[in-house]
Amino acid sequence: MKAPPKSSEAVRQAAQVEREAVSFFRRANRLAADPRVKFIFSRAAEEHENALKVLEPLAKGRGKPRVPSFFPVDEYATIECSVCGHSEETDEIPETCPSCGAAGYAFDKDVPRDLAWSLVARTARNVAAFTRKMGAGVKDPEAKNALTMAAGIHRDLLAEANEERARLEGAAP
After folding, report:
1. Tell me, what CATH number does 32's domain have?
2. To the nearest 5 percent, what fractions of the chain are helix, strand and coil?
3. Which helix (H) or strand (E) covers residue 89, if one does?
4. What are the pLDDT digits (tens) for 104-115?
5. Residue 94 located in a structural domain
6. What is the distance between the alpha carbons of residues 47 and 128, in angstroms, rounded to a whole number?
7. Using an 8 Å Cβ cutoff, are 37 and 116 in contact?
8. Quick check: 173 pLDDT over 50?
9. What's the pLDDT at 5?
């Protein structure tokens, strides 16, 4: 049986997941077409930043730890022009399509709100479970508390996402 990670390594791994979450949701926010979806992704990034603030002071060590990926990065790695189909991998949407000259909004990603909240719920659930697992064998009370607080942030985000999904399902089309 594999031994649980040391306190500093557990916190470091949880912090790395938070960094990846912040990066993912910021990118998704930039690419989203609907301002309501931008808000959803912004909320998720904000909550992951809050969890990272709790973990980062205790995340000691060098290098980038290997952690599981909970985010569909590939779905947001490439932008595609809705006019001509030109695609490229970039962090920023160009002002105009280099192929057909269409305005930059032709690259916006159309993500329905219910799918955005589902993505937030799924990732919050997975990150909370990972954070709890990292904290399970931690002996250091400060590290254990930080991991518990971070998991709590994700539980709250999950509850918010589930509530919003339920509200959207009950809303008239």
Report:
1. 1.20.1260.10
2. 65, 5, 30
3. strand 87-89
4. 888 787 888 999
5. no
6. 12
7. yes
8. no
9. 61
